[in-house]
Amino acid sequence: MKFILGKKLQMTQIFDKEGNPIPVTLVEAGPCKVVQIKTKEKDGYSAIQVGF
Q: What span, in angstroms and rounded, lies between the C-alpha atoms of 4 and 26?
């Protein structure tokens, strides 16, 4: 799985070479720390919990 974990800051726009507007989302990413590790043996499933 590929993803970016972050906080949405705002929507804005940029312009291509022809002057056409392109909508973009500004995201503040990281730093993220692993705060908990779940294991199959202890918790019945595998996962991590991250803090932002």
A: 12
Rg (CA), the chain: 18
Domain ranges of the chain: 6-51
For residue 14, which of 25, 4, 22, 2 has the smallest C-alpha distance? 22
What is the C-alpha separation between 47 and 1, in angstroms, rounded?
13
Has residue 43 got a pLDDT over 90? yes
More confident residue, 3 or 46: 46
d(CA 20, CA 45): 47
The upper half-sphere exposure of residue 30, i.e. CA atoms within 13 Å in the direction of its Cβ, equals 3
